[in-house]
Amino acid sequence: MGTFLGHITPGIFFCVWSLWDLIGLFSDYFSAAQRKQTAPWMSATYYNMGPTACRRLNIESFIKILFPLFGIISMACVNGLAVVGNEQHMTMYFFFGLHGITELMHIYGFPLAKSLHLPHVSLALAYFMEGLLFFFHLHGKDMMEVHVHVLLVYVIYGTTLATALEIKFRSSLLLAVLRSAGTFLQGLWFWAVAFILYNPIPNAVKWDPTSHADNMLVTATFCWTVAATYIGVVLVATITYYCVRKCTTGNSKDEEYEAVPMSDSMEFINLTPDED
Q1: 50 and which of 13, 54, 243, 271 could share a cystine (Cβ 3.0–4.6 Å)?
Q2: Which residues contact 56 (CB under 8 A, 6 or more apart)?
Q3: What is the pLDDT of residue 264?
Q4: String of b and e for 42-79 (b: at least 16 CB within 10 Å)?
């Protein structure tokens, strides 16, 4: 992963996955609010959206298996298993692929998958292992490389915590949004790290790993990335809300859509433990 493409590739995976997840959870939440359902809304790690064929094939979970598999195979073929560091990156991909397999087990009714909340458990495990691998990936690195990866580890463990809490508080939209936002932030930061450490632009000014000013700029860049994540999540929520509203209005000629305030339908935070 110590290349420009090695950081851009997982960045694309995390960003696309998290955007899909945000659209799915907001669509599901706003649709449930519009229906004024009495049962509490429950978050999920997958949302079957798109054409009917894609929903029947559970394409989202298969992509979560195929993309990590592609990452493992590409590293094994291009760099070779003997290259130091590849084993860590391949292990990270493996755990996210395992999460995809667990989702399929849950979808197809594998015993205990639902009662043990295995999709959320496997996702929290994948994030935890990712953070563990990156934490011990820093030995012998220069100051700037340690800096960017420590910031990444903070995000990973924050995402892990949100995912772990979501196992117990499935009806909390806040925790589901934090999980997806944390994943999106990881993707954006992978892209930023790719340009900071391995900028491919010809004649671009290289960042000085020993410069105090450059290292402070790394922190500022991370803060801007957090701001971009916040703005992105708000935009996705707003666009999804109006799309759900428009679709509902278009499907109902006799009844005008009435926006349901969150306080009147469901709790946004809702940290009351869900009943098993």
Answers
A1: 54
A2: none
A3: 40
A4: ebbbbbbeeeeeeeeebbbbeebbebbeebbeebeeeb
